[in-house]
Write a structure and sequence with these properties.
Elements: E1 25-33, E2 36-38, E3 41-52, E4 65-77, E5 85-96, E6 103-109, E7 111-112, E8 115-116, E9 118-120, E10 136-144, E11 149-158, E12 166-172
Antiparallel strand pairs: 1-3, 1-12, 2-3, 3-4, 4-5, 5-6, 5-9, 6-10, 7-8, 9-10, 10-11, 11-12
């Protein structure tokens, strides 16, 4: 629905020093649950999807999956939808590599080095913020508990013009120090 996961969401990377993510890892998926609103905070907006081969950052069908899996659940403050933005205030993400052994996961961070995690929707269905007309953009700071690195998940959320809502993006995590 209205978040991303912004990651997503969701979601992501490899074992302690197995892969450098300078190029980023791409994913596509769907919003599975819009979350529950309590006292002005939406809790548990959930996204899930699949990894995809390097190429343009765009939504691809599951048939283009490389065999990996990504998921994320975020909490946010604000009202989603055209002309709005929300601040991601926490959550969790996970990425399972196609080898079924390498798992990256950790927290979704609200702010890191002065950069906030957020989802921004265009003013209307005709406005393009870089993902296509009517499609939201997101940026989420994430930590990887396995490699003890910090990076970001960013991309696009099409939750106003299609059902189920589609999410796609890129995960950038440095290799372990």
């Amino acid at each position: 629905m209205k978040l991303l996961v912004s990651a997503i969401i969701a979601l992501l990377l490899s074992s302690v020093a197995s892969v450098a993510w300078a190029e980023g890892s791409l994913f596509s998926g769907f919003e599975l649950f819009p979350g529950i609103k309590l006292d002005g905070i939406t809790i548990g907006a959930t996204f899930s999807g699949w990894t995809q081969t390097p190429g343009p950052e765009q939504w691809v069908p599951f048939t283009s999956s490389t065999g990996g899996f990504v998921s994320g659940s975020v909490n946010y403050a604000g009202s989603p939808g055209f002309g709005h933005s929300v601040n991601i205030i926490g959550g969790k993400w996970a990425w399972l590599e196609a080898d079924d052994h390498t798992i990256h996961s950790g927290p979704v961070l609200s702010v890191l080095n002065g950069v906030s995690s957020a989802v921004t929707w265009p003013a209307n269905a005709q406005t393009d913020l870089g993902c296509g007309p009517g499609i939201a953009t997101f940026y989420a700071n994430v930590g990887d508990g396995l490699s003890h690195t910090i990076g970001a998940i960013s991309g696009c959320l099409n939750d106003q013009l299609t059902f189920p809502p589609k999410i796609w993006g890129i995960v950038n995590l440095p290799s372990a120090p």
